[in-house]
Amino acid sequence: MKKSMKKFVQDTQDGYDAVSHEYAERFKDEMDDKPFDRDCLDRLAREVGALGPICDLGCGPGQIARYLYRQRVKTLGVDLSTKMVEEAQKLNPEIHFHQGDMLSLPDEDNSWGGIAAFYSILHIPREQVVDALREMYRVLKPVADGKSQSLSRPVSEHPIQQDVEPASAHTPHRLYLFCITQPENHAGEVHPAGFAQWLGHLQ
Question: Is the CATH number 2.40.170.20 carried by domain 2-200?
Answer without folding.
Answer: no
